[in-house]
Amino acid sequence: MSKTFDYQIPVINSLRGLAALLVCLYHYIYTTTDFIQQELILDIASFGKYGVQIFFIISGIVIPISLIKANFKYKLFNKFILKRFIRIEPPYLISVIIGIIYLNVRNYMPGSADLDLSPTFYDIILHLGYLIPFFENANWISPVYWTLSVEFQYYLILAIAFPLMIHPKLIFRSVFYLFLFITPFIFSNSSFFLYWTSFFGLGILYALYFTKKINLKEFIPVLIILCLSVAINLSYLELLIGIGTLSIIHFFKDFNPRIGEFFGKISYSLYLLHSVFGKPVINFLSHRVSLPYEKFLVVTIGLTISIIAAYALFRLVEKPTHELSKRIKLKT
């Protein structure tokens, strides 16, 4: 691989921002009880949950590219995990603390449902390693955290399987492809990465093609096989979203307007905080308005508050820790 190879895919930043906004609107409009009655709006808002799948495709592309760029070896495993940990853990832990405070304060807020959602000490400890799915009767503080667990499992498994993924012999790469294809037929719990291997595989395969580790003759048939697994084990809609995301990345690689750049930068913080900032505001105001324009203003207010909170978290925590993670070089 030439040292001058351009690994950058600017449009991914805008897609991150879009994915985060879609998830926000899903939680703000579709999951707010007795807020929006128009079926058309609810149907449109329901598609916001698929912002998660956009994130998964992006991770499927970005992480393999970073490992390929670093010429990853097993001796770099600890550095890789540490680098990812420093990158994602501090904003996550801050959001966990904010979530704990919110769920406890919520019990004393007028109008709140008579249901104690305060996390137990057991729940809090399990959040530290994204371990909630591995234990019974454990609950996430925020409904979005399950995806972070899936992603962290992905980091671990991809690093372990990396030699197979980039092996010069097709027979070894085929073992990796088989793993991506077949595991969703075996594992049916969406809280685990093994349920999502074929979907992440769409992004991984594109990363291999993008970095010229495989040619088009290998890319196309393996893509078809992975699409078959996604269609059978997930849904045709998720397959369409996956292929659509890949198509945007491939054909509009350099598209990244300033607004996309902004929301891309704060996308992780926005994803973490939107359910503890904007969502409570919308829940509180939703029963106090009735006219369409008032409901639009309520959603706008909730989203604006979340964006402000996300920007603060990005500037104060995420950006500094991101810069710190860059200092850890994946070099042998």
Note down, in words, how this protein is organized.
By secondary structure, this protein is mainly α. The protein has one domain (11-326). The protein has 13 helices and no strands. α3 (51-69) packs across α10 (236-251), α4 (77-106) runs antiparallel to α6 and α7 runs antiparallel to α8 (197-210).
Name some characteristics of this structure.
transmembrane helix, Acyltransferase 3 domain-containing protein, 0% strand, acyltransferase activity, transferring groups other than amino-acyl groups, 332 residues
List the helices and strands and how they pair.
Layout: H1 11-30, H2 39-46, H3 51-69, H4 77-106, H5 121-127, H6 145-165, H7 170-186, H8 197-210, H9 216-233, H10 236-251, H11 258-273, H12 278-286, H13 292-326
